[in-house]
Structure formats: C-alpha cells, structure tokens
Amino acid sequence: MALVTLGCARNDVDSEELAGRLAAEGWEISADDDGTADVVLVNTCTFVEQAKKDSVDAVLAAGGPDSKVIAVGCMAERYGAELAEALPEATAVLGFDHYGSIGERLDDVMAGRPLASHQPADRRALLPISPVKRPEAVRDGSIPGHDWLPEVPRKRLDDAPVAPLKLASGCDRRCAFCAIPSFRGAFVSRAAQDVVAEAAWLADHGVAEVTLVSENSTSYGKDIDARGAAGGALERLLGELAEVPGLRRVRVSYLQPAEVRPPLLAAIARTERVADYFDLSFQHASGPLLRRMRRFGSRESFLALCAEIRALAPEAGIRSNVIVGFPGETEEDLAELEAFLSEAELDAVGVFGYSDEDGTEAADLPDKIDPAEVAARVERVTSLVEVVSADRAARRIGTEVEVLVERQELSEAAAAAYPDLADVADLDLAELGLDAEPEMTDLPDEPEDEAEAEAEDTEPGDLVWIGRAAHQGPDVDGECLLTGDEELLAGLERGAMVRCLVVASEGVDLVVEALEILTPTVDREPAAAGAR
C-alpha cells in the first residue's frame, strides 16, 4: 500500500496512524507512490479551494493501471458520496469513522466487495455541547488520533528528527470563513498521559523535536479540567513533555489569540526545552473586519500581546496567518492590517486570499471582492511581510541560536553544477560517499548528465547541513544553513542540537556558524509500527 498525504501536520499524524494500523495487519507500507502498489490511500485536504484541487489531482494521479485508489482525509469526510460521484477514478471514499476498521475496508476493496461511500454529517453534533461530557462520549465514536485503546499503532513514514504530535482535535469556535469544525467536529483534548506516551515513543524512534498540533491548542484541557483551559492543563503538559528522555525541543502550534493567557505565555517562554515560539492566528488586525469574521481582537490588542511575549522572551519567534479580501474589507481595513504588520515585526506571516467555503457564514455575506482585486491585495501584503520578516531575521545577526540539525542537501553551487543530482529528492547522499563541509571545492567545469556519474565527481563541501532554530517552525518559517569548523561539521548527524552564531540572513533564512554540539544524536530504532 502507498500512502499519499496532502495538507497540514494533523493529516501527517492521521496518515501515520493509518499506516500503523495497516502495518499491524500485515500490509507493506510505502510513503512513495511509484505506480506499483495494490492500493493507494490519498489523505486529502480541503482547507482552501487550491487544496481541494490539489487533492483531486492527487487522486487522479495516484497509482498505476492495476491500483485501487481510496480517498480518505478531510475532503473525503466533508464531501463523501458527492466526491465519489464526481471522482469515479476513486475505488472508494472513506470517512473518519472508517479509520478504526481501515484494514477490513481494504480487504473489502481487494476482494471486490461493494463498499458504500461515506455519508457526510456535521460532526459538531456528534458530541455533547458541554466540553466536560465529551471525553466519555469520544469512546463511542471515531476521531483520528483519539483511540482510547492502551496501545495504538503508529508507523513513521519518514525518519526525520522532527514529528507532529496530536494534542487535540476539532474546534468550538465559529469563525465565519472556516468550515473545519463541520467535518473535524467539536473540540476534544487527548489525555495528557497519551500525549506523553506517544512523545516518548517518538523519541525512542529518533525524534528530537515534537510539534504539538490541533485546530486550537489554547483550548487544550477545557474538556478534561472543571476549570476549563484556564486550569492550566496545557501548561502542566508542557512541563511533562520537557522531561521526556531524548526530546530536545517541544513546539506548540495553533494558538488562538483570544484564548491566550499570561500563564501559558510564561510556560512557553520559561519551560526548558519548550521553544520560544508563538504561532498566533491573528487573521486580520482591523477590529470591525474581525467582528465580521466572528473573531475577537484589534491592532492594539494584538500589538500588546506581541509586546507581552517579547517582554518574556525578546528573541521569541512570532508567526501568524492573515486573510485579505474578506467580504466587505475596505481600504481602511487593509491599511490597518498593513500598519499592524509593520509595527508587530513578526518573524513569518502566511498571506491567504479569501475564497468562499461551502457551508460557511462568509459564503453568504454581501460585498464580495473581485478575485483579481483579492489577488492584488495578497501580492501587496505579501510584499510587505517579506520585507518586515527579512528585517527581523537580519536583526538576529550577531546573536546565538540553538539549531536542530535536520538534513543534508546540495550546496547552491553544487546544485547548479549537478542539476541531475539536485533533482533527486530522495537520494541517499551518504551512500554515494558525499561529505558535509561548509564550502564548495574543485567542481568540474563540465559536469556529467547522469546523477550517478555526477555523484562520483563530487568533492567534500558539496553538501551542507540544514536545520532550524527555536523561532523557526517546520516547513513554514525559514531555516538555518550551518557553516564553520570543518571538523565540527563532519561530526554532525541529524537530530543533533548545535549552538550557533548567526552570521548572515537571506529573507527569513539564516546562515549560522556552528560553535558547539550541545547534545549527541539519539540512536534510531526502525520507523516501524509501535504504541503510543
């Protein structure tokens, strides 16, 4: 079976749970679809319109002529039988309720037994309105990542030293533009002991950094503590995770500004091994437009929050996403957003153009903005945040950061000289005898055309180490390129934590000089099925 995953880190976790369940039943699992698999599971995304298109394209491209293609994930859950009718290329469309019996469903597919497509329902109605009554109700339902068995299989689909770890699922907020609660359901926290146990399992399998993911991490504990989230369940959990042997960094993502509280800010800023990193979903900064979005806050309150964070941790990373072109957004609203972004000096900002989402309040709002104008506003705000974030990165020059080493890749010069090698995404560079050094040396004037021939001609220095500092989240916030003493660099491995001096910047990326290896790497176990 091949497993193709689209979308966010929450989907990554779901895919690894599906892989674990199937591996435990004897399926051979691959994260690469080379066209030879008997079955291809496509874990779809429906976050925005482009994500839907990408998911459809992935289903159409999946597998070979004899492969069975099954759509799972958010788009499959949201549209179910409608998606199956529109995509006859998919052998089946399964929802979240099928995950617990995924092996049986694949057996049905392989045996040619008819399999009814998932019938969507508003998952917000599946759990009690009262949060404290939900944990018991979850036992009778199916929420990816929330199985209450003592042992739940998870199979890692890569061997990267960083991995997402599901904190909770669902959301109780009703933002006008967002459809996620309708198919991910009401907010449900995972039990703290389950989160810690899974973190320990990940650490045993070579993971040095876990990123806590959910739809709204600030709500964690509202359903397992009579005092709600303010009871400090997340703050306590961070302390427990920081004690897990082998973990070097714990990162929290998806913080809702309206629910952030001073003790949580302090816990993130002061708990050892918890990254000074604040992923705050501001979405906009104009008070009137935020009300129209069914959100809270303003330019002033958001600036005050950023100031509070930087008073606790001056070098903390603060990132966010914003939506431009929301129905009724005026030039004054846009100017307010731009003023906020200029003053807040965030480390990274994702800029999204508004598009209608089925079933949301915003889809029925008047005063829609022409798509061409929305695109122009995206470009305008993106240009601003690129400058602001680059300036913020440049001000880190001369400071020290702790970098988690993640991978090796071809240096810029080597990539230009060896285009075939640069295009081999999964090349095992170590097996080819390439070394990691800070500089390029002695590249031939006329590189060969084939990747293997090019690999034979490479010299020490063709590879560089890439990692991330605490203020840089995976995939979205920039990276660090390590340079420095050749002997020190030669001793690096993935998963090492290195004290570095920032010596240059390019956009949000940093060039750092490695000064000291702070921790040895962790012995890796095979990335096979295991227990949370």
UniProtKB/TrEMBL annotation:
Protein's recorded name: Ribosomal protein uS12 methylthiotransferase RimO
SUPFAM superfamilies: Radical SAM enzymes
Subcellular location: Cytoplasm
Cofactor: binding comment: Binds 2 [4Fe-4S] clusters. One cluster is coordinated with 3 cysteines and an exchangeable S-adenosyl-L-methionine.
Record: residues binding [4Fe-4S] cluster 1: 8, 45, 74
Chief location of this protein within or outside the cell: cytoplasm
Region (Disordered) location: 438-459
GO biological process: tRNA methylthiolation
PANTHER family, sorted: RIBOSOMAL PROTEIN S12 METHYLTHIOTRANSFERASE RIMO, RIBOSOMAL PROTEIN US12 METHYLTHIOTRANSFERASE RIMO
HAMAP family: MTTase_RimO (MF_01865)
GO cellular component: cytosol; ribosome
Similarity comment: Belongs to the methylthiotransferase family. RimO subfamily.
Pfam families for this protein: Radical_SAM, TRAM_2, UPF0004
Domain Radical SAM core per the UniProt entry, residue ranges: 157-391
InterPro entries found in the cross-reference section: Elp3/MiaA/NifB-like_rSAM, Methylthiotransferase, Methylthiotransferase_CS, Methylthiotransferase_N, Methylthiotransferase_N_sf, NA-bd_OB-fold, Ribosomal_uS12_MeSTrfase_RimO, rSAM
Gene Ontology molecular-function annotations: 4 iron, 4 sulfur cluster binding; aspartic acid methylthiotransferase activity; metal ion binding; protein methylthiotransferase activity
Gene3D superfamilies from the UniProt entry: Methylthiotransferase, N-terminal domain, Nucleic acid-binding proteins, tm_1862 like domain
Cofactor: [4Fe-4S] cluster
Reaction catalysed by this enzyme: L-aspartate(89)-[ribosomal protein uS12]-hydrogen + (sulfur carrier)-SH + AH2 + 2 S-adenosyl-L-methionine = 3-methylsulfanyl-L-aspartate(89)-[ribosomal protein uS12]-hydrogen + (sulfur carrier)-H + 5'-deoxyadenosine + L-methionine + A + S-adenosyl-L-homocysteine + 2 H(+)
